Every structure is written in C-alpha cells, then in structure tokens.
Amino acid sequence: MSSKQKWVIAVVAIFLVVVYLYFNINKANWDIFLYKHGYKQPIMWDSYNEKDEPVHIKIENRQFEKTSVQMTDLYYLPNLKRLHFGIWFDKSIYSSTESNSPKFHIEIVNDKGETFDKNAYVEEIGTFEIFQLREIEGVDLKGCREIKIMLYPVYSVKPGSPMKMGEPEEKVTSLENIE
Q1: Largest separation between any pair of C-alpha atoms in the chain
Q2: Are 147 and 173 contacting, i.e. CB atoms less than 8 angstroms apart?
Q3: Beta bridge partners of 132
Q4: Model-level pTM?
Q5: Distance (Å, whole) CA 14 – CA 108
Q6: Which residue among 11, 42, 47, 67 is least crowded, i.e. fewest CB within 10 A of its CB?
Q7: Mean pLDDT taken over the chain
Q8: Which residues span the domain enclosing 100?
C-alpha cells in the first residue's frame, strides 16, 4: 500500500469519526431545540392515553429570573390528571457530581389552594444545557382560572435524608385562554 493510499484511508477514517461524533452530540441538541421552540410537545408518551387529547396552556413569560431556568408551554392531560412541560438551564451553572440528582423541585398550586408536587422527569443533556421533560401527576385544573408554578432549587439529595431546598420562585399562569 502506497503512502498516498494510507493518507486517503486516514482522512476517510477521521471524517467518519467526526461525522459519527457530530450526529451523536447533535441528536440531544436537536431534541432540545424542538422542545424549546414548541415543535415537539414535552410529553412523556408512555403515560399518554389516545383518548386524552393534550390541552395546550400557553406561558407568556417563560423565564424564572433568579434561577435562570426557562420553561416550555404546559400540556395538560385532563383524563389522566397529568401536567407535562419542559424546563431547561445552563449546564455550566447547574453541574453536579451527584448523578441523577434533581436540581429543581416543582409544585403546581391551583386557585383552590390545592398543591400538586408528584414530580417525574427525564433529562436530555445537550452540549451547553440540560433539558428536563417534566410530569406532575394528580393535577386537577377543572374550574380553575389560574395556577402558580413554584420552582424550588434543590441543594442536596442524599439517600435517606430529606431534600434541602431554597426559596421558591413563583410564576402565575392564567388558564383563561386554554387551547
């Protein structure tokens, strides 16, 4: 094999490695982009019932100022009483050495004073940010005009000990113009 052939094989191999890495890194980034911009609903579809059409609840101000967390619109599944949405935040600000530890706890409070806080989430880790698909179970929005979304920073989660949470940041959302 000549040196020219070896050089061509090396260039092709490097090109294939770069293409492979590009697509693997950008898959998560592409999914995050779709969720953030509303092209993909942030619903954990394994809990979805075909008879339960998601109710879209638009969020006007998506930014939690103190924590630099942003959120998607809300999607409510009334028959299952589940509220789905996504949050995302800068990976460098909220990096953690504890694997699978939540960085935020979220509660929904309706205008009847009922609190819903049974959180489930799945994380998508992008190059520069982390996106969490969120689901809160047991949410009853029947007859409600507005809800409060309470975002608590979580400082520590150790097995066998309670979560240490910071002061909540609150966002009030009207349910008047539900699609």
Answers
A1: 79
A2: yes
A3: 87, 123
A4: 0.79
A5: 50
A6: 11
A7: 85
A8: 45-174
pLDDT digits (tens, 9 = 90+) for 70-107: 999 999 998 888 999 999 998 888 765 554 455 889 99
Q: Is residue 106 in a domain?
A: yes
CA distance 90 to 74: 21
Helix (H) or strand (E) holding 86: strand 82-90
The Cα 177–Cα 155 span in angstroms is 36
User: According to the 3-state scheme, what is the secondary structure of 111-148?
Assistant: CCCCEECEEEEEEEECCCEEEEEEEEECCCCCCCCEEE
Supply angle C-alpha 136, 51, 79, rounded to 5: 40
In CATH, what number is assigned to the domain containing residue 137? Answer: 2.60.40
Nearest CA to 149 out of 158, 141, 161 is that of: 141
Residue 12 lies in a domain: no
**For residue 37, is it within any domain?**
no
Is 8 domain-assigned? no
Residues 68/121/124/110 CA torsion (nearest 10 deg): -40
